[in-house]
């Protein structure tokens, strides 16, 4: 998205296409910006954004990469550096390791020096997870996740589990953790987990959190810091962003249909018809 001639606050007449709206500092017409989250409505050729959520995209980052990585990349940053600060020597588990956020978590955690274990559903995804920095890949359709984690960790368990699956993985995630370990639940692709008895946590003095990206990027400084680390890690090669599918905006309905039909992998980007 580029800054258009419209400001982010109402005014009697639209300003000239060669100007920016009132109150905007540090930006000019033609600057490339991106955003993630609110306000909703990115299935559009043009959008008016509050200046406070517009993030400058550095020239080193491809526009399609930026479009595909903003939400997933900042989610990975918040999970790894703020919700639980992964460091060298930690052993972590990433469910859905070949997924959009999972792939970035594995790459980033590997670069931080952690031992990364990932769960996937098949051999093809296992190969991708290995490429993305997983030291151990568990194909959960063929192997018992808890047993394999205990084997890999010599019975010690994990420092943290990043769980985007939810209902199907909650119990295994709890069992895999070491005493005082962290379960970070940030998705529910298999459905909402059942109510969690406090005794499940008390058995090993565990921590459970359900973070929202928006609460960790609530200020302009937090937002810029998170996006800046994502862009820096793309530029230095720590993060590889796979944009495997693009659709014209006029064909936008195909994207969720193909996603639900498991016809896609990596990121999907919608392209305005005028850019085709």
TrEMBL record:
Enoyl reductase (ER) domain boundaries: 5-270
Domain of life: Eukaryota
UniProt-listed Pfam families: ADH_zinc_N
GO-annotated molecular function: mRNA 3'-UTR AU-rich region binding; NADPH binding; quinone reductase (NADPH) activity
Oligomer and partners: Homodimer.
SMART domains: PKS_ER
Annotated protein name in UniProt: Probable quinone oxidoreductase
KW NADP (keyword) present: yes
Region (Disordered): 1-25
Keyword list, A-Z: NADP, Oxidoreductase
Single GO cellular component term: cytosol
